């Protein structure tokens, strides 16, 4: 997933970007970077790890300027540990462009060939973001007319970028001396919001970010979600222009944002993430009641953090007690987005501890938002048993994850997914619970989409194997499996 933010302001922006990245930390923990523009000079600081440890005071002092952008990375291509793949990426022509990207491109093989063979561009990393930046630079170079770059030329370039790249992308880029560009893929898979606040110098200060909680926390007013296919250009003087740059945009956002990725206090595409999670709990309660014998559950327990809203609703709907039996160490980050299975498994035990008094002799319904590799659930079931639970039922507020996610979440290999090629009883054998209940795919969709009409479809490819963009077929999935290790 990754978190991105960009801003044009009347005041220095480094601190605002740093604070925003802290708020987006849940979207990526591998590396982080900030770039600012002081006139037409870029300043940049990048570092491995999380935001709080990444920037020193002397780094912040160097980040001068009133336009800037930032990134927290959760790698989907290349290596999480590769410093040269951390973002932002920079290219010096035309003008000088600095770019951050949330998403994952699916036609990287063709892009790499064309960029080298036709455009004569050298790629120095395995990152798809480097490809994206070079496509943008090539297309911008093609459309430049006259001495001054204007928003129309920038939008023409984005139109051409949409024609060349496939997959998911929410992008923010700075063009040196000109302004800030933001655009979203024509399926609106990854999120991007636009917000502003009054400013004495420029009229308005602008911010674009992955999630709405970012501008809200800094006193900005959300203007709207950037539309699928749309591009926004904000000059360094604060003048904002937008244009739809795709002939047939559709809004098919990633369902996994609502299930797990996004913070619950964000609203995405008009849907409150928290409320969607509550509704996922309502729907799950019905399925739990259907598949478990009556009297089989004494208490409902969430796996902190992401499962709390759903678990609360399950308890309420089933008229059962809600208890917090797992204590979460707040200093350990998210497990699922860590690179490497060894680290993920170790982290579950460091992160969660079961309190025996909540388990001894009880029949527990453990609720999680999703089961992907089964790293968390396997450990949790074992911990519950070790602490004396009489019976363990496990329920997932998302359906079985049976297919790779190719749009920005690092689950590329089918064999690592606990539900791939397995029936639910077979998956449960691997988990070791007494009962295993999954949300139904259609129930998930109705729960997320309920009560609004802006979004009518969702990317649910990791649950149903239907990929909404580009050519994602068996051959491509095999190639990803061969080239990516997680
Ligand atoms: O089946 P798995 O491969 O273990 O993946 C699923 C688990 O990973 C996530 O938790 P994570 O610890 O990343 O974040 P959270 O604290 O927000 O729940 C998610 O909430 C599930 O608990
Ligand atoms: N999760 C993301 O959005 C990743 C962005 C990009 N594909 C990278 O690997 O850096
Ligand atoms: Mg979790």
TrEMBL record:
<feature type="binding site">
    <location>
        <position position="368"/>
    </location>
    <ligand>
        <name>Mg(2+)</name>
    </ligand>
</feature>
<dbReference type="GO" id="GO:0000287">
    <property type="term" value="F:magnesium ion binding"/>
</dbReference>
<feature type="binding site">
    <location>
        <position position="306"/>
    </location>
    <ligand>
        <name>Mg(2+)</name>
    </ligand>
</feature>
<dbReference type="InterPro" id="IPR035584">
    <property type="entry name" value="PurF_N"/>
</dbReference>
<protein>
    <recommendedName>
        <fullName>Amidophosphoribosyltransferase</fullName>
        <ecNumber>2.4.2.14</ecNumber>
    </recommendedName>
</protein>
<keyword id="KW-0479">Metal-binding</keyword>
<feature type="binding site">
    <location>
        <position position="369"/>
    </location>
    <ligand>
        <name>Mg(2+)</name>
    </ligand>
</feature>
<keyword id="KW-0460">Magnesium</keyword>
<keyword id="KW-0328">Glycosyltransferase</keyword>
<comment type="pathway">
    <text>Purine metabolism; IMP biosynthesis via de novo pathway; N(1)-(5-phospho-D-ribosyl)glycinamide from 5-phospho-alpha-D-ribose 1-diphosphate: step 1/2.</text>
</comment>
<dbReference type="InterPro" id="IPR029057">
    <property type="entry name" value="PRTase-like"/>
</dbReference>
<feature type="domain" description="Glutamine amidotransferase type-2">
    <location>
        <begin position="2"/>
        <end position="237"/>
    </location>
</feature>
<dbReference type="InterPro" id="IPR017932">
    <property type="entry name" value="GATase_2_dom"/>
</dbReference>
<dbReference type="Pfam" id="PF13522">
    <property type="entry name" value="GATase_6"/>
</dbReference>
<dbReference type="GO" id="GO:0004044">
    <property type="term" value="F:amidophosphoribosyltransferase activity"/>
</dbReference>
<dbReference type="InterPro" id="IPR005854">
    <property type="entry name" value="PurF"/>
</dbReference>
<dbReference type="Pfam" id="PF00156">
    <property type="entry name" value="Pribosyltran"/>
</dbReference>
<comment type="similarity">
    <text>In the C-terminal section; belongs to the purine/pyrimidine phosphoribosyltransferase family.</text>
</comment>
<keyword id="KW-0315">Glutamine amidotransferase</keyword>
<dbReference type="GO" id="GO:0006189">
    <property type="term" value="P:'de novo' IMP biosynthetic process"/>
</dbReference>
<dbReference type="InterPro" id="IPR000836">
    <property type="entry name" value="PRTase_dom"/>
</dbReference>
<feature type="active site" description="Nucleophile">
    <location>
        <position position="2"/>
    </location>
</feature>
<keyword id="KW-0808">Transferase</keyword>
<comment type="function">
    <text>Catalyzes the formation of phosphoribosylamine from phosphoribosylpyrophosphate (PRPP) and glutamine.</text>
</comment>
<keyword id="KW-0658">Purine biosynthesis</keyword>
<dbReference type="InterPro" id="IPR029055">
    <property type="entry name" value="Ntn_hydrolases_N"/>
</dbReference>
<dbReference type="GO" id="GO:0009113">
    <property type="term" value="P:purine nucleobase biosynthetic process"/>
</dbReference>
């Amino acid at each position: 997933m990754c978190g991105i933010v960009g801003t044009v302001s009347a005041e220095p922006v480094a601190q605002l970007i740093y604070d925003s990245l802290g708020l987006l930390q849940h979207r990526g923990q591998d590396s982080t970077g900030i770039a600012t523009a002081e006139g037409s000079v870029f300043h940049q600081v990048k570092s491995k790890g999380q935001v709080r440890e990444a920037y020193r005071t002397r780094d912040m002092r160097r980040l001068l300027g009133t336009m800037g952008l930032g990134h927290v990375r959760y790698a989907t291509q290349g290596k999480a540990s590769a410093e040269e793949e951390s973002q932002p990426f920079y290219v010096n022509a035309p003008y000088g462009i600095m770019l951050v990207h949330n998403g994952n491109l699916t036609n990287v093989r063709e892009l790499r060939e064309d960029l080298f063979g036709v455009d004569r561009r050298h790629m120095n990393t395995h990152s798809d973001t480097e490809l994206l930046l070079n496509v943008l630079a090539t297309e911008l170079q093609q459309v430049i007319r006259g001495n001054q770059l204007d928003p129309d030329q920038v939008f023409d370039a984005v139109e051409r970028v949409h024609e060349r790249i496939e997959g998911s992308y929410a992008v923010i880029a700075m063009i040196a001396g000109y302004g800030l560009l933001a655009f979203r893929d024509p399926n609106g898979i990854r999120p991007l919001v636009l917000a502003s606040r009054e400013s004495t110098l420029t009229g308005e200060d602008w911010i674009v970010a992955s999630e709405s909680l970012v501008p809200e926390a800094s006193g900005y007013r959300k203007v709207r979600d950037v539309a699928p296919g749309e591009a926004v250009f904000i000059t360094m003087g604060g003048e904002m222009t937008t244009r739809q740059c795709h002939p047939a945009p559709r809004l098919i956002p990633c369902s996994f944002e609502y299930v797990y990725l996004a913070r619950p206090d964000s609203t995405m595409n008009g849907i409150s993430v928290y409320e969607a999670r509550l509704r996922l709990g309502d729907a799950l309660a019905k399925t739990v009641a259907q598949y478990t014998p009556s009297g089989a559950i004494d208490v409902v327990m969430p796996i902190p953090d992401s499962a709390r809203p759903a678990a609360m609703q399950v308890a309420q709907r089933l008229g059962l007690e809600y208890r917090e039996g797992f204590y979460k160490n707040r200093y350990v980050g998210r497990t699922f987005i860590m690179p490497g299975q060894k680290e993920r498994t170790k982290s579950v035990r460091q992160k969660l501890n079961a309190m025996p008094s909540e388990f001894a002799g009880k029949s527990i319904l453990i609720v999680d938002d999703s089961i992907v590799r089964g790293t968390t659930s396997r450990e949790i079931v074992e911990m519950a048993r070790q602490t004396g639970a009489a019976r363990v039922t496990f329920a997932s507020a998302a359906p079985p994850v049976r297919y790779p996610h190719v749009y920005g979440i690092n689950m590329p290999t089918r064999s690592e997914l606990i539900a791939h090629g397995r029936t639910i009883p077979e998956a449960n054998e691997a988990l070791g619970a007494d009962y295993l209940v999954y949300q139904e795919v259609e129930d998930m969709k109705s729960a997320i989409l309920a009560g609004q009409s802006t979004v009518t479809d969702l990317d649910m490819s990791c649950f149903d194997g239907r990929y909404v963009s580009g050519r994602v077929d068996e051959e491509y999935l095999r190639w990803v499996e061969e080239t990516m290790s997680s």
